[in-house]
Amino acid sequence: MLELSDFYIPKEILHRDKQMKVIREVFINFKEYKCGTNLAILGVTGSGKTTIIKKILEEQDNAIYVSGLETQTPYKTLKKIFNFNIKTNEELLKRTIEKIKEEPIILIIDEIDKISRVNQLFNNLNTIYRNTMIPIIIITMKRNIISEMPVDARKTLFFEKVSLPAYNSIELKDILISRIKQIKTKIPKIEDGVLNYISAIAGQQGSARVLIHIALKCIQKRNFTHSFIDNVYKQMLKQDWFDFVNDINETEREFLRYIIGSCDWKNETTAENLEKKMKFYSKARISQLLNTFEKYSVIETYHKNLGRGGGRKRIVKFTSEEIYKELNKMF
Ligand SMILES: Nc1ncnc2c1ncn2[C@@H]1O[C@H](COP(=O)(O)OP(=O)(O)OP(=O)(O)O)[C@@H](O)[C@H]1O
Ligand SMILES: [Mg+2]
To answer: In degrees rounded to 5, what are phi and psi of residue 316?
Structure first.
């Protein structure tokens, strides 16, 4: 069922008009004035970042799209832009700039956070921009990408943020109905209650990918029960945390080792405890790291009143025995 696969570009894209307008403006300005704003398209996984860009690329032709998921390094990313076969980064950068000057394009880099030593790429993009003034669009789920960029690149490139908020379950239901309508083969009729349930489950992460994946599984297995839907979602979460942990950076890795050292799957620890152990991180940073791991269901946290003198504490524990054991093996 191609229409529900990740490669299919939907005929209509709902709830993203505002963001698509901002991106289209960059394309229009580029056509008319040969320059334009640089954009950072930000949003959680499944919020439609790649989809809206691919949709716009169906209508426009003056852009080159590269995905960091595929290229992985700054060198391979530069190389991919024009498929140059050049050995050194320096020469590659020079030739890329020359080529852009001959044929200006909008440069789009999706999943930029998947590129290792991304700061080097930002410095290269900075050089490209200074020499050509072409619009550069980066796409990522990392909200702090701009604040962590090398200062010079940040100040020159001056990315305007385009935020894609996580979808709520009402929006997800609209999307689901629209996507199901696009399926050409005959499928069983899906009851309204089932649509609501799938949308509510996917709404926990606000992800249209989760939504469409669950719907696809239900149709393929001809099973629309709540317990089946719950199960599909559980399986997806498992895959998510695994991919996420495989992909974390050195700081996050170290942080995770500290958590593993501080609690196991039965015994909890507290944020305060972690702060004591990791004096080199600020309280805010620890709280942010905990939020990240919680989002991917690696850990769970909740607040507890420990009574007189104890105060209100943020309790931290691993989500499951299985995750704890897997992590112990990995680290
Ligand atoms: N507004 C929408 N209308 C219809 N389908 C959508 C919409 N938004 C997302 N989708 C669908 O949801 C799935 C995930 O979207 P997409 O790949 O664009 O997310 P993403 O933000 O790029 O996620 P990631 O950060 O994981 O790359 C795709 O199958 C896409 O077609
Ligand atoms: Mg994407």
So the answer is: -125, 130
The pTM of this model reads: 0.81
Would you say 78 and 89 are in contact if contact means Cβ atoms under 8 Å apart?
yes
Measured by CA distance, the residue closest to atom 25 of ligand 1 is 45
Integer Cα distance of 162 and 41 in angstroms: 5
Q: Is 15 in the pocket of ligand 1 (CB under 6 A)?
A: yes
Q: Quick check: CB of 19 below 6 Å from ligand 1?
A: no
| DSSP state string for 6-66 | TT---S---S-HHHHHHHHHHHHHHHHHS----EEEEE-TTSSHHHHHHHHHHH--SEEEE
Over residues 165-186, mean pLDDT: 96
Q: Whose CA is nearest to atom 8 of ligand 1?
A: 48
pLDDT digits (tens, 9 = 90+) for 191-219: 999 999 999 999 998 999 999 999 999 99
311, exposed or middle or buried, with CB in 10 Å at 0-12, 13-18, 19+?
Answer: exposed
Buried b or exposed e, range 139-153, using 16+ CB within 10 angstroms:
bbbbeebbeebeeeb
For residue 126, what are its two tokens? Answer: 């900075």
Residues 128-136 have a mean pLDDT of: 97
Average pLDDT over residues 285-303: 88
Q: Is the CB of 148 under 6 A from ligand 1?
A: no
Phi, psi of 318 (to 5 degrees): -75, 150
The confidence band for 246, taking pLDDT boundaries of 50, 70 and 90, is confident
> Residue 110 in 3-state DSSP?
strand
